[in-house]
Write a structure and sequence with these properties.
Structural class: alpha/beta
Oligomer: single chain
CATH architecture of the largest domain: 3-Layer(aba) Sandwich
CATH class of the largest domain: Alpha Beta
Number of helices: 19
Number of domains: 4
Number of strands: 10
């Protein structure tokens, strides 16, 4: 894209104000944001701009585009990061002494919370519930009712985090927002803030945006309420736009021209999303000349759908792509497709629970004096919290490795078997593991 369009130009020219940019898919959103940054830097020599994205991949892509357009001097005045990345920067500024809880370490604490609380729930559901409750902050953005069992599980999880002096990203984000709200922490040193894919923000993140806006930072939120697909992760969707409009009375701009899709695709998409009454009305237009057709196929169940997809692939082996909101469906399809495929998105093999559990076990062989790793490994065996605390206290007090300890009598059979097995490993094997 060369020059800004008639729709994009007002956004760029009015960047030093509070703005709400509702951008259709493929409407040149990234181009418009970058042009706005360039315009701000030219007009205001002391401006400092923050750009917020939702994924690390989006952050890297946006930063790479800015590097091509800005001098080193101007680039130093632009801060590009995810919400969690910016929260971490604020925590570093106050030298927060705790440890961040993410990945396998967080999954281990969830396992322990399930065991300690006595709640009967599958791990995936427990993980979802703890994340959902942890994201709640502003009931005007998102409000979900949770039952007593779910709340008890969350409170147990929080108690374990406090005992271990750790905190997950939701808790840390709430802490930062609370500190800014009370005046104990300053907002980031910015003059302008541009938030991409704002429909995906949750109530904590919206509070973070609002606090910066109230502090005098010119804020432009950019996104599309029709592309809000993360409600399962407590995103606010259209409510984010409504709350921002209500509290800050921003300029409202629409980018309705799609440079990505043929009009045939856009027409069908528009007919579907137009059924939603809780949205900002917009007139979608395609910049393409047109061509091709959209075909709907209906199937009775998932098995019939999978067979239908395989049949379509056989008819056209070289011109297809499969999209799904469920990785499990894609995994099943991939196992049945005979030809090589290119995977895009989804979890890494190393992020899977079973893989990370094995890595934690191997890491503990190497660092058997680490109480945190000890808790993570023994939690896999469903060990009681009282046993974990007793062992951790002994390890810290005597400064010995796990294998040198006398295991408490009330330890589980699985833990005792693990001790016997690990201590019986040949010396050569232990040396290799270390």
């Amino acid at each position: 894209m060369g020059k800004p369009t008639e729709e994009q130009r007002p956004v760029i020219e009015n960047a030093s104000a509070n703005n709400m940019v509702i951008a259709a898919p493929g409407s040149g959103k990234s181009f418009t944001m970058i042009e706005a940054v360039i315009s701000i830097l030219k007009k205001y020599p002391y401006a400092r701009i923050g750009m917020v994205t939702f994924t690390r991949a989006a952050t890297n892509a946006l930063a790479a585009k800015l590097q091509k357009r800005l001098s080193k001097k101007d680039l130093d005045r632009v801060l590009v990061d995810t919400f969690h990345g910016l929260v971490k920067k604020q925590l570093d500024m106050i030298r927060w002494p705790g440890k961040m809880l993410i990945g396998p370490a967080q999954r281990s604490v969830i396992h322990r919370a399930l065991k300690e609380s006595g709640v009967t729930m599958k791990f995936a559901e427990a993980e979802f519930v703890i994340d959902a409750i942890g994201r709640e902050m502003d009931t005007d953005v998102i409000s979900v009712r949770h039952n007593r069992q779910q709340i008890h599980l969350f409170n147990t999880y929080q108690a374990l985090c406090q005992k271990d002096h750790v905190a997950d990203l939701n808790a840390l984000s709430k802490f930062v927002v609370g500190q800014m709200h009370s005046g104990k922490m300053r907002t980031l040193d910015l003059t302008h803030l541009i938030v991409d894919e704002v429909q995906d923000t949750d109530s904590i993140q919206f509070s973070w945006i609002a606090l910066h806006t109230r502090a005098g930072v010119y804020t432009s939120i950019v996104g599309d309420d029709d592309q809000a697909i993360y409600s399962f992760r407590s995103s606010g969707g259209v409510k984010i736009f409504q709350q921002f409009e209500k509290h800050f009375r921003p300029n409202i701009f629409y980018l309705n021209t799609c440079f990505r899709c043929e009009p045939e695709i856009l027409e069908v998409a528009g007919a579907l999303i137009g059924k939603n009454v809780y949205r900002y009305a917009k007139e979608l237009r395609s910049a393409k000349k047109g061509g091709g057709k959209v075909t709907f196929r209906s199937y009775v169940d998932m098995e019939e759908q999978i067979q239908g997809i395989l049949s379509l692939i056989n008819q056209d082996p070289h011109g297809w792509a499969i999209l799904s909101r469920n990785n499990a469906h894609l995994d099943e399809l991939e196992s049945l497709i005979e030809q090589p495929v290119i995977r895009y998105g989804g979890k890494s093999f190393w992020d899977e629970k079973e893989t990370s559990d094995v890595l934690s076990l191997m890491a503990f062989f190497r660092q058997s004096n680490d109480p945190r790793l000890m808790k993570r490994v023994l939690a896999l065996f469903g060990e009681q919290e009282s046993v974990l605390d007793e062992v951790a206290l002994s390890m810290r007090g005597r400064k010995v490795t796990f294998g040198d300890l006398a295991i408490p009598e009330d330890s589980s059979l699985e833990t005792k078997h693990y001790i016997q097995t690990s201590c019986a490993l040949p010396r050569k094997v232990l040396i290799k593991l270390r």
